[in-house]
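2024-03-11 09:14:02 INFO worker-7 job=invfold-0412 stage=load source=structure_tokens
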């Protein structure tokens, strides 16, 4: 089974309470510039919003989602099962339904709910999938009740029952169990913290903004000063849009925004590069929550520079750093043992790896 796709950090933020209504409505309208797969997952999340207007808007946006952008998502085994279930249930395009029904990531329950009403050509995709039918006899019964089946399909289902002696008995024990649903990547949250940190939009002078966003050294860099000048008057929604589609300089500023929703939007930007992630991992001005999100993202931590910067960054939560020390090369581990800028527990962990298994016994 393929590895589950990493959830876009901004989408994960929308799955928690506290996102302002104007942003949720904007997202429901499809106005956030995300990659198609991320936007689709976000829209599916908003189908469960507490407000009817947002649910209805998200439904309409999903209904009009371009089929050519949906098709590769329907074929992707790592697509969220809930998204696949929505597509096969609510979209009528044959190519979309065919691709989704053949996707191993689609839950058996979603197929069972439709099996009795599928047209003959789509029912064929259920009939030929013996693995699903044998591990879930209620699905077999549902497709057998389909009035659109042809005689050949009915014969094959009957032979399946006879061969495996299915008649109210449980499926044979030698059959493979259903694969577990993809596990979404979780980001460790601090229960004491507000999940979005939506702060008041009170007036902020340009000089205040410079102090909030930039270190003393960075205030001498004109590109960073210019970026702050462009964004300091923006409200939350405007900052989120800037984080998603703005320049590299703007992302480097907004990732430090005290509003977690804004900072997370930077990590969810389709324009974000691996080099930027590596740079963020080393920022001592970044919040521990943003560092935790970077450290919990398996794609980003495949890059050695990201791992090394996270371990050396004193702001990185210790729980993240400890798990990454073993991935450093010997030279970096050695330098870590004398680095007074990192927590003592990290230095001790580095010393254990430096000693090696033989010396640890003495």
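2024-03-11 09:14:09 INFO worker-7 stage=emit residues=362
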């Amino acid at each position: 089974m393929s590895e589950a796709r990493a959830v876009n950090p901004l989408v994960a933020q929308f799955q928690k309470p506290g996102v302002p209504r104007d942003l949720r409505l904007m997202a429901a309208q499809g106005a956030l510039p995300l990659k198609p797969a991320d936007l689709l997952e976000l829209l599916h999340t908003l189908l469960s919003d507490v407000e009817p207007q947002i649910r209805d808007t998200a439904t309409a946006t999903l209904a009009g989602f371009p089929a050519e952008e949906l098709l590769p998502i329907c074929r992707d085994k790592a697509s969220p099962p809930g998204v696949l279930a929505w597509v096969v249930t609510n979209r009528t395009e044959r190519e979309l339904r065919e691709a989704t029904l053949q996707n191993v990531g689609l839950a058996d329950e979603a197929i069972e709910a439709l099996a009795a009403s599928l047209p003959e050509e789509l029912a064929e995709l259920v009939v030929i999938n013996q693995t699903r039918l044998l591990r879930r006899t209620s699905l077999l019964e549902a497709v057998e009740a389909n009035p659109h089946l042809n005689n050949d399909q009915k014969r094959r289902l009957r032979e399946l029952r006879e061969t495996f002696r299915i008649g109210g008995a449980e499926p044979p024990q030698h059959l493979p169990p259903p694969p577990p649903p993809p596990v979404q990547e979780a980001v460790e949250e601090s229960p004491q913290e507000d999940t979005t940190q939506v702060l008041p939009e009170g007036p902020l002078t340009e000089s205040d903004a410079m102090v909030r966003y930039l270190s003393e050294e960075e205030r001498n860099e004109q590109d960073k000063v210019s970026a702050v000048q462009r964004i300091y008057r923006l409200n939350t929604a405007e900052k989120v849009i800037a984080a998603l589609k703005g320049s590299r300089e703007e992302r480097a500023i907004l990732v430090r925004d005290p509003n977690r929703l804004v900072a997370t939007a930077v990590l969810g930007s389709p324009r974000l590069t691996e080099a930027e992630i590596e740079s963020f991992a080393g920022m001592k001005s970044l919040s521990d929550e943003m560092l935790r999100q970077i450290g919990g993202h398996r794609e980003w931590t495949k890059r050695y520079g990201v791992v090394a910067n996270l371990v050396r960054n004193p702001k990185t939560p210790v729980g993240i750093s400890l798990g990454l020390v073993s991935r450093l090369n010997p030279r970096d581990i050695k330098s870590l043992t004398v680095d007074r800028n990192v927590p003592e527990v990290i230095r001790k962990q580095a010393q254990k790896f430096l000693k090696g298994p033989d010396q640890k016994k003495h």
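2024-03-11 09:14:09 INFO worker-7 stage=report msg="Residues 169-175, 181-201 have pLDDT under 50 and may be disordered."
2024-03-11 09:14:10 INFO worker-7 job finished
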